[in-house]
Each structure stands twice: as structure tokens, then as C-alpha cells.
Amino acid sequence: MAVYIEEKKLKAMERKVKVGEVALRFATLVLGVSAAALMETNSEVKEIVSIQTKAKFTDMKILVFLVIANGLAAAYSLVQLVRCLTCMLHGTMLHSKAVAWAIFISDQVMAYITLAAIAATAQAAVFAEYGQPEFQWMKACNIFTRFCFQSGEGATMALLVSMASICLSGISAFNLFRLYDCSFI
């Protein structure tokens, strides 16, 4: 009887982990697409001394990297979301160590890519907001305010994508290492 109760608790916990994983993968998908779209459509035209100057996301290569990283994270989340939903609908669990390792490593890579992209974007945002007088780099956000606000919104969404990717990496680590020993559960 005690084994049956423990097995029931284990299945309930695994179901909660799966639901959490699906929710995080869906959030990563939606936020990743939103961040990439927000950055990609970001542009502003200003006239300075009768010369039109246009700011667009391709002017800052780090924003291009951020768009690519969020697009990759969204695409990867879509693939993993389909896998998770298929497993949930069929009532199957991950039993293959090789597949669990592949998912764990892929989640780690996505977490590192999104974290690197948001860290570099934060540095670029500091330069855009405050400039770098030692290098004679002027402030850009006092000229292109709407561009900077929209970039900030996209970066905030990208930060949430990165945080969700880190959490998913932890979930995939749990799913992997539970295959080796269930005594810690």
C-alpha cells in the first residue's frame, strides 16, 4: 500500500513538472517571437540640421544578435512544446537517457545563448543611454527616444525569455538525473 501511495505521489509530481515545463516553453515561444518582432520592426527617423537620420535595429549588431537569439529560442521552444504535449497526451514519460541528455544539453545551449544576448544588449543600452565620452561616442537615446524605448521593451521581453530558458534548463536537468536515481525525489 505504501509503495502505491509513493508511486501516486511521484506521478502527481511528474505531472506538475510537465505542466510547468509546457507553460515555460509556451511563454518562451510567445515572448521570443514578441521580442524578435518588436526589435525587428524598431526604427525611427529624425531630422538633424536638415539631414534625415534613421535608426534601425540593424545599426547595432548586438540587436541583430538579440533578434536571432530570440528567434532561435522561440523555434526551439516550439519543437520542445510539441514534444512535451505529445508526451502528455500519450501519457508517456522520458525514459531514454540519450534523449534526456540531448534535451538537457540543448536547453543549456539555449539558456547560454539567450543570457549572452541579453547581457551584451544591456551593455549596448548603457552606451546608447549615456554614451562614452572617452571614445567620443555620443548619447543616442536623447536623439532617438522612441527607438530606445522600443528597444528597451524588446530587451525586457528577451530578459524574460532568458530567465525562462534558465528555468527550463533546471527542469531538463531534473528530468535527466531522475533517470539515474530516484532516491532524491
TrEMBL record:
Pfam families linked to this entry: CASP_dom
Membrane protein topology class: Multi-pass membrane protein
Transmembrane segments: 21-39, 62-86, 98-128, 155-177
InterPro entries registered for this protein in UniProt: CASP/CASPL, CASP_dom
Protein location: Cell membrane
Domain Casparian strip membrane protein positions: 15-162
Keyword Transmembrane helix carried by entry: yes
Entry GO terms, CC: plasma membrane
Protein keywords: Cell membrane, Membrane, Transmembrane, Transmembrane helix
Family membership noted in the UniProt record: Belongs to the Casparian strip membrane proteins (CASP) family.
Record note on quaternary structure: Homodimer and heterodimers.
Name by which UniProt lists this protein: CASP-like protein
